[in-house]
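Record type: monomer structure entry
Structure origin: computed from sequence
Chain ID: A
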Amino acid sequence: MLEFYLIIHFLFSVIQFFIGVLANGIIVLVNGAELIKQRKMIPLALLLSCLAMSRICLQLSVFYINWAIVSLIEVPLLVENFLIFMFVNELGLWFASWLGVFYCAKIAPIAHPLFLWLKMRISKLVPWLILGSLLYTSVPFVFYSERTWLLSQQVLLGFFYPNATTQIKETSAIQVAFFMRLFLPLLIFLASALLLIFSLGRHAWQMRNTAMGTSVPSTGVHMRSLLSVLSFLVLCVSHYMTAALLSSQIFKPRSLMFLFCILVFGSYPSGHSTILILGNPKLKQTAKKLVLHGNCCQ
């Protein structure tokens, strides 16, 4: 019989799953309808759609892992799906990093020549960034599939069978090399997010001093953008921190800290997309229509 706290954890994971699928589904639905209507998609919509689709896959993978924690699915079956989880997680992190770069290039009021060049070129670079991220993320799974399989097997054995020993001596080196890959999108995201935060904060402070107490609409817009970026940063850092804690295997499976880290890890793809919807008028309007339609159908 399942412990009470495991049932509570699974209920939270179900709620998290539905919020994430709904939020990312709205992004895909709105941008897909725009593509059918206009027969073209702007770069930002393309990037958001790719990010949302990767996060739907990630949300499915996280939910499957939560199900495995509760029901203890056989490890060989879980390894096959864990490879998919590793792929969509890294791909989604790259897309989120490029989204941060896009917002930084378009919003940050920086007059540096290199930054102005990026501001003019970022829209044309978006399809190439998406394609490059897809190819870069696919390399370990196409050319090093056997080693990637060993890594996933080692991680899962450490989760569910802490006392199990393996004969694979090179797995630790593979694990370090693979997780080091994840720090590259983190560094890109941190650089763009911090640059955007400092530039928006300085610009808002200058606008407030210039206005001398009068209300300036652009100041409120910049403050909302600043809060959104800060929330992105908190969610992203918490995602990486919990991933590092889980991969270090310092918590026992099914322990409270282990389950807490799993929930925090899964809150990033759902929370980030929800904030994106709240900050986008078109997506926010569609979400309101869906909620009102759901209330009317009850």
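Annotation 1: The two ends are 35 Å apart (CA to CA).
Annotation 2: Residues 165-170 have pLDDT under 50 and may be disordered.
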